[in-house]
Each structure stands twice: as C-alpha cells, then as structure tokens.
Amino acid sequence: MRNYYIAGNWKMHKTRAEAAALAQALVAQLKDGKHKYLVAPSFTALETVAAIVKGSNILLGAQNMAAEEQGAHTGEVSVLQLKDLGVHTVILGHSERRHTYKEDDGLINKKVQLALQHGLEVILCVGELLSEREAGKAEAVCETQTVQGLAGVAAADFSRVTIAYEPVWAIGTGRTATPEDADAIHAYIRQVIARLYGADAAQQILIQYGGSVKPDNAAQLMAKENIDGALVGGAALKADTFVPIATFQ
Ligand code: 13P
To answer: Which of 16, 73, 88, 185 has the fewest CB atoms within 10 Å, i.e. is most exposed?
Structure first.
C-alpha cells in the first residue's frame, strides 16, 4: 500500500502574515492527519512558515530553484539557500514554469539532479496542454517530460522523487480530469517508471494529481488505484478547503 501525499502549492500568494496564519491553522487542523503533507509558500514566506511547521507533520516545500548552486544569477534562489531555510522538498517543472517562463526539460533536469544531490526531495510536475490532449499526445508528452526530467537520476536518489501529473488545461480552470482519465495517465507514467527503474520502484513511487482539486472531487480522484495524492493550488490557499482534501478518507 502506498501512502497518500497531499501538497499545497501556494503559488504567488500571501504576505508573511497571511502565510503564517494559514500555516498555523494547518498545523492545528492536520495534526491528527494520516497522510503525508507539504506546503509550498513563496520564497518570501519560507522562513516564516518554516518556524511554524517545524516539528509538525507538515513538510516545507519551495516552488522552484535555480539550476546552479550559486553565483551570478540575478533573481534566482539556490539549493543552498533553500536548505538553509529548512526546505525539505522542491517542486520542479510546474507547468507555469514550463509555459510562462519557458523552462525546458533540459533545464528542469539540471534542477532535479542538483536538488537530489543536495538531499532534497523533488516533486516533478508533468502534464500536457489541451491542444496536445486533443491531438492524442497526452501520454507521449508526459512520457517525454518524465524521461527527460529524470535523466541521469540514479535509482538510489529516485526514491526521493514524487511525480505530479497536472494536465495544463485543468489548472486553475475548474475543469478537472475525470478520475478515469487521470488514472490512465498515472498508470502510463508508472509503466514509464517501471522501464526506467524497475517494477518495485514503479509500485512505490507516489504520483499526485493536480488541476482543480477541490474538497468535492478529491476523494473520487484519490480512490483510483494509481492516484496517490494531490498537488493543490487554489484550494490550498484556505484551511477551509485544504483540510477537507488533506483529511479525506
Ligand atoms: P489549481 O488547484 O488551482 O488548479 O492548481 C493546481 C496546481 O497548479 C498545483 O500546482
């Protein structure tokens, strides 16, 4: 049996005070929660949230990271700086990074390798555009992003990787993939992992679904055999909507 892993990606929302209030509410309300939990605030709130989630059952995540360890990279944040703040996991390859900020698989792979070398866990996001789904390419796109994102990652490090399937057309749109459609892609990704890392690794890896996950659809999605959790955007911004997702039975 795999664990469930529910993560909140707060994207570019919340001042430090707002982030602190949400983190405090989540620590209190999820303290008896049975699943694996993570919150990923903006860089500016990491230190504040780190102090609040410390010692709780909620892990601290960052939403992105530079591909280089340090140096002349104006505006970037390094793995060393994230570790210094107590970050446990970094989300890489989010579709907003891929499509708005033009990150390609090669760059994302450098980040994945660097994060793993430094002992962080990684949530690697993959997912197709609506045009790609309509052209029948959803599986191929997710396969390419998975294979290229993990290039050069050794089996020993792969145990610190979670994959998040986030169909781009379902993010922030209120349009969710059906549980059946999402499960089919998750199963396909699991086959890709079996080819790369073997059957045991494919059974063990957690594959989250992301894209308009809400309290009223979370349980149906996670009831599917291959859906091991959720990467939640909009509904992660309030305890009232995140807690019911995170504590689903
Ligand atoms: P929404 O839940 O707002 O669709 O966002 C999903 C997402 O992008 C999480 O990373």
So the answer is: 73
